[in-house]
C-alpha cells in the first residue's frame, strides 16, 4: 500500500513539476523571477492557468513562444528586458482574461494585430514601457475589455477614436504621459474611472468629459492646471464621486455646482489663497476634503454650511491665522481634523463643540499664544489629549517665559494676560474660579481701580477690594 502511494505521488509530481528557476505555488500558478532567464520554459504543465515572468533577461516574444500554453487565463511580463513582441505572439491564447506587459525600458512599440485573437481579454496593462504612440486599431478586437492601463510611457499622440470599440471599458489609466484631447474619450461612455495624472495638462476644454456620464473617479493629480470648474463636464449633473486635483498650480476654483455627488475631493498642494463662500455648498454628500499645502490665509465662516456628512477635513500647511467659531457647526460626524502647520495663535471658544464622536486632531506647528485667551482651548486639549496626534509638538510660541513649552504641560494659572500698556507689569491669573491680578511696581502708592459689569460700576482704592456678594466672585489685588 505504501509503495502504491509513493508511485502515485511521484507520477503526480512529475506531471506538475515546476520549471527550472520558477516557483509553483499551486498547480495552476507559476512564477519565474531570475535574471538568468533569457527564454520562456518549455515544460509548463497544461494545468497552469497563471504564468508570471519578472526581472528576467527575456528580450523577444516570438510567434511560437506561447504556442504550447493555450490554456492560460493570466499572463504577466513584469520588469523584463523585452525589446519586441511579435504581432502573433499571443494568437494561441484565446482563453486569456488578463495580460500585462509592463516595466520594459526598451519596448517602444506594439505591432498592429498584437491583440487580435484576445477577444476574451478583460484586463490589459501596458505600464512603464517607452511607447511613444499607439497605432490606430490596436485595441479594436478587445470588445470585452474592462480595464486598460498605459501609465508611465512617453505617449505624446493618440489616434482619434483609439478606444472606439471598447464599449465595455470601465477603467482607463493614461497617467504619466503627454497627451489629452477631446477625441480620446469618444465612445467610452461607460468609463467609471479615468486616470490622467502627470500629463502636463494646463487647461481642460469645456465639455471634455461630457460623454462620461458614468464616471465615478477622476484623477488629474500632478498636472499644470491653474483653474478648475464644472464646465469640463457639460451642463448636466455629474455622477463623479472622487476628484483628485492634488499637485497642480490651482489659484482659483469656479463654479462646482454640477459636482453634487462628490464624496472625496482632494485639492492639496496647490496655490489656493482664497475660496468662495459657496464653493462646496452643493456637495451635500461630501465626506473627505483635503485642502492641505495651499496658501489659504482665511476661510469664510460658512464655507462648510450644510455639509452634514463630512468625516475628514485637512487644512494643514496653510497660512490660516484664525477660524470662525461656528465654522464646523454642521460637521457633527467629523472623525479627522488637521489644523497643523498654520499661523493659528488661538481658537475661538466652542469651535470643537459640534463634534459628537471621537475625533483625531492635529494642532502642532502653530505659533500658539499661551495666555488667558487660551483657557478654553487648553481645557479642551487636556480633556481630549488621547485624540490629539503629536501632542508633544503642540508648543507655545508666546509669551516668552513659556516659549517652546508643550501646551499640555502648562498649568491653567500660567495662562496669564497683561492688562494694558499702562500697566505693563500687571497680569491676571485664575485660581479655583478666582481671578488674581498681580502687578509688579517699583514702590507702593495709592491707586484707584474701577470694576464694572453690565449693571454695576464701582471705584475702589488699592490695595484691596472685594466684590459685593451679589456678583458671586472675588478679585484679589496683590501688589508685589
From TrEMBL:
Chain ranges of the LRRCT domain: 366-418
The keyword Cell cycle is annotated on this UniProt entry: no
The entry's keywords: Glycoprotein, Leucine-rich repeat, Repeat, Signal
InterPro entries linked to this entry: Cys-rich_flank_reg_C (IPR000483), Leu-rich_rpt (IPR001611), Leu-rich_rpt_typical-subtyp (IPR003591), LRR_dom_sf (IPR032675)
Any Pfam family hit: LRR_8
Signal peptide residues on this chain, from the entry's feature table: 1-17
UniProt xrefs under SMART domains: LRR_BAC (SM00364), LRR_TYP (SM00369), LRRCT (SM00082)
Gene3D superfamilies found in the cross-reference section: Ribonuclease Inhibitor
SUPFAM superfamilies in alphabetical order: L domain-like
Record-given protein name: LRRCT domain-containing protein
Organism expressing this protein natively: Takifugu rubripes (Japanese pufferfish)
Amino acid at each position: 500500500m505504501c509503495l502504491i502511494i509513493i508511485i502515485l505521488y511521484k507520477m503526480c509530481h512529475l506531471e506538475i513539476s515546476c520549471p527550472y528557476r520558477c516557483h509553483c505555488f499551486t498547480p495552476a500558478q507559476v512564477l519565474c523571477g531570475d535574471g538568468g532567464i533569457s527564454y520562456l520554459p518549455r515544460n509548463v504543465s497544461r494545468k497552469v492557468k497563471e504564468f508570471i515572468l519578472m526581472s528576467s533577461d527575456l528580450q523577444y516574444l516570438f510567434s511560437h513562444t506561447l504556442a504550447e500554453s493555450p490554456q492560460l487565463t493570466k499572463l504577466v511580463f513584469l520588469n523584463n528586458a523585452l525589446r519586441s513582441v511579435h504581432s502573433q505572439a499571443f494568437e494561441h491564447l484565446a482563453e486569456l482574461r488578463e495580460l500585462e506587459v509592463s516595466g520594459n525600458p526598451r519596448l517602444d512599440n506594439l505591432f498592429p494585430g498584437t491583440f487580435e485573437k484576445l477577444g476574451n481579454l478583460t484586463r490589459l496593462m501596458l505600464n512603464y514601457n517607452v511607447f511613444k504612440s499607439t497605432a490606430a486599431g490596436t485595441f479594436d478586437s478587445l470588445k470585452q475589455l474592462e480595464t486598460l492601463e498605459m501609465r508611465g510611457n512617453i505617449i505624446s499622440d493618440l489616434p482619434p477614436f483609439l478606444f472606439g470599440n471598447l464599449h465595455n471599458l470601465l477603467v482607463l489609466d493614461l497617467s504619466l504621459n503627454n497627451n489629452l484631447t477631446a477625441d480620446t474619450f469618444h465612445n467610452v461612455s461607460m468609463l467609471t474611472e479615468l486616470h490622467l495624472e502627470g500629463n502636463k495638462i494646463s487647461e481642460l476644454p469645456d465639455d471634455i468629459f461630457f460623454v462620461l456620464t458614468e464616471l465615478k473617479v477622476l484623477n488629474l493629480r500632478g498636472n499644470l492646471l491653474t483653474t478648475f470648474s464644472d464646465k469640463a463636464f457639460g451642463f448636466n449633473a455629474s455622477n463623479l464621486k472622487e476628484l483628485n486635483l492634488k499637485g497642480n498650480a490651482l489659484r482659483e476654483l469656479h463654479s462646482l455646482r454640477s459636482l453634487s455627488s462628490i464624496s472625496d475631493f482632494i485639492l492639496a498642494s496647490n496655490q489656493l489663497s482664497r475660496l468662495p463662500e459657496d464653493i462646496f455648498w452643493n456637495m451635500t454628500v461630501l465626506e473627505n476634503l483635503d485642502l492641505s499645502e495651499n496658501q489659504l490665509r482665511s476661510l469664510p465662516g460658512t464655507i462648510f454650511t450644510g455639509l452634514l456628512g463630512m468625516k475628514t477635513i485637512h487644512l494643514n500647511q496653510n497660512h490660516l491665522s484664525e477660524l470662525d467659531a461656528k465654522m464646523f457647526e454642521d460637521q457633527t460626524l467629523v472623525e479627522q481634523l488637521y489644523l497643523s502647520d498654520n499661523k493659528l495663535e488661538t481658537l475661538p471658544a466652542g469651535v470643537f463643540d459640534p463634534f459628537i464622536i471621537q475625533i483625531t486632531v492635529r494642532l502642532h506647528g502653530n505659533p500658539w499664544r499661551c495666555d488667558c485667551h487660551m483657557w478654553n482651548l487648553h481645557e479642551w486639549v487636556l480633556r481630549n489629549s488621547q485624540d490629539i496626534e503629536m501632542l508633544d509638538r503642540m508648543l507655545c510660541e508666546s509669551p516668552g517665559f513659556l516659549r517652546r513649552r508643550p501646551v499640555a504641560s502648562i498649568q491653567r494659572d500660567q495662562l496669564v494676560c497683561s492688562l494694558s500698556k499702562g500697566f505693563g507689569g500687571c497680569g491676571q491669573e485664575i485660581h479655583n474660579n478666582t481671578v488674581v491680578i498681580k502687578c509688579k511696581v517699583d514702590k507702593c502708592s495709592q491707586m484707584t481701580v474701577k470694576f464694572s459689569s453690565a449693571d454695576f460700576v464701582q471705584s475702589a482704592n488699592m490695595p484691596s477690594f472685594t466684590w459685593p456678594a451679589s456678583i458671586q466672585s472675588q478679585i484679589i489685588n496683590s501688589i508685589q
